[in-house]
């Protein structure tokens, strides 16, 4: 069992994952409402995805935040970063035009990117050796709980939802009785974003009270004297580190190109390609996230006791099976839709993101551990941003290109499976210092 300090800090830091996924899904669940309110096209939606927490915003934030965490400490990030997140969420809440909405998504995304490398690094460094995988899974459960809660709120407050009457009253009290239907409806999304503001405020108060990572304090004294570019040079001058970046970025990128599209566009896809209502799409997505949380909880019980390669392989095989459903049964009927939703939920609980977070914090020395993760996150989310734009053209206005998109997804997931199976490291339950010495010797 993890001691209470480790578990408490893991939960506090894991709220960053809640806010990451929550920001993505809050935008996704209200996407149609913003589209109707502001008269947006599919291309406009693609740009929202491009600069959001799902892609570019997080990419830019990650490469900055990772090296800042190595230079000034993990606690430095926890002390200030969520203030930026709250600013971004408030900007979205009060948006009245497309540029303002874009700005809010970008600010929120940058904050998400800044926080993620420091969070995963801190969890790993503060965990006991035989609970490191378990604590990373707890963090990933938060990544699943966020969307589940946000989708539930979205459905309650959405037009036709149980609490929409309250939303209407709020909208008219602020905007007047002459408010248009579209402007009234979008208030449900504003309320959902306000819930993220509340959680971010709570998380900020918890995280800024954490103690600095003892490993950073003990081993990273020299890097505090180095500049940002010095840390980048140290990372790129080490061949083992560069190979590790390539390996981890490959397994995470190929999976995330699929997952990022699903995270932002899934309810929209269910509505256009599956032909279900917005409420039905959100319910299906919510159930899927509940499956992800449940499977991740199960995995957390044995990830430190069994083969990482076996868990990783199982997850990718299930992911590929989900997309094979698309190209065989299709999603125009309930059987195909539900089969896909359930399978994608199961893979989410064993996904490469768990192992990317775990291995990314294990396979680098403390002096550039967060920086390396930030660099990889930049590569992955940046390319995911470009893919999100390309996907909107492949998919089409009404989902006519969905089958072609599915074949692309299968190919990407197969690459992640093969590379991860071949390169899976043997780090389970080893001390971080031992892993560093085995990989890098005494030179770091």
The number of distinct helices, counting runs of at least 4 residues, comes to 20
Overall geometry comes to globular
Unreliable parts: none
End-to-end distance, in Å?
Answer: 31 Å
Structural class: mainly alpha
Written as H for each helix and E for each strand, in order along the chain, the element string is HHHHHHHHHHHHHHHHHHHH
Number-wise, the strands total: 0
Mean pLDDT: 85
User: Radius of gyration, rounded?
Assistant: 21 Å
Q: Name the beta content range.
A: under 5%
* Main sheet: strands, sense, barrel: none
Q: Tell me the helix content.
A: over 70%
Q: How does this model look, in words?
A:
This protein is mainly α and 444 residues long. The protein is built from 20 helices and no strands. Helix 3 packs antiparallel against helix 18 and helix 14 packs parallel to helix 16. The radius of gyration is 21 Å and the shape is globular. The model has no long low-confidence stretch (mean pLDDT 85).
Task: Give a nutshell description of this structure.
The chain is 79% helix and 0% strand.
Distinctive features:
444 residues; globular; 79% helix
């Amino acid at each position: 069992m993890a001691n209470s300090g480790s578990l408490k800090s893991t939960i506090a830091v894991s709220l960053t994952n809640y806010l990451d996924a929550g920001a993505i899904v809050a935008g996704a669940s209200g996407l149609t409402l913003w589209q109707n309110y502001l008269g947006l096209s599919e291309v406009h939606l693609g740009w929202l995805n491009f600069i959001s927490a799902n892609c570019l915003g997080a990419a830019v934030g990650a490469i900055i935040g990772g090296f800042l965490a190595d230079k000034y400490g993990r606690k430095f990030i926890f002390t200030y970063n969520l203030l930026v997140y709250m600013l971004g969420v408030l900007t979205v809440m009060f948006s009245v035009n497309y540029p303002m909405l874009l700005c809010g998504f970008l600010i929120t995304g940058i904050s998400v990117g800044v926080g993620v490398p420091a969070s995963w690094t801190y969890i790993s460094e503060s965990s006991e050796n035989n609970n490191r995988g378990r604590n990373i899974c707890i963090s990933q459960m938060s990544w699943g709980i966020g969307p589940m809660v946000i989708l539930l709120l979205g459905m309650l407050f959405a037009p036709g939802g149980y609490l929409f009457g309250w939303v209407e009253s709020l909208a008219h009290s602020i905007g007047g009785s002459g408010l248009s239907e579209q402007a009234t409806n979008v208030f449900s999304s504003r309320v959902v974003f306000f819930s993220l503001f509340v959680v971010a405020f709570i998380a900020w108060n918890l995280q800024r009270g954490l103690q600095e990572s003892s490993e950073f304090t003990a081993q990273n004294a020299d890097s505090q004297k180095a500049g940002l570019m010095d840390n980048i040079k140290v990372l790129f001058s080490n061949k083992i580190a560069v190979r590790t970046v390539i390996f981890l970025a490959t397994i995470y990128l190929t999976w995330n190109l699929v997952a990022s599209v699903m995270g932002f566009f899934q309810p929209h896809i269910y509505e256009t390609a599956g032909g279900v209502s917005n409420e039905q799409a959100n319910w299906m997505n919510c159930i899927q996230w509940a499956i992800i949380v449940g499977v991740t909880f199960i995995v957390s019980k044995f990830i430190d006791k069994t083969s990482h390669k076996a868990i990783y392989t199982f997850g990718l095989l299930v992911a590929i099976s989900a997309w094979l459903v698309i190209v065989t049964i299709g999603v125009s009927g309930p059987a195909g839709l539900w089969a896909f939703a359930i399978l994608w939920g199961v893979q989410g609980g064993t996904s490469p993101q768990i192992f990317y977070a775990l291995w990314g914090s294990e396979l680098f020395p403390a002096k550039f551990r967060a920086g390396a993760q930030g660099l990889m996150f930049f590569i992955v989310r940046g390319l995911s941003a470009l893919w999100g734009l390309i996907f909107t053209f492949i998919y089409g206005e009404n989902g006519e290109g969905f089958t072609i998109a599915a074949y692309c997804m299968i190919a990407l997931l197969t690459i992640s499976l093969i590379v991860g199976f071949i390169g899976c490291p043997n780090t389970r339950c080893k001390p971080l210092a031992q892993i560093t010495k085995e990989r890098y010797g005494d030179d770091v």
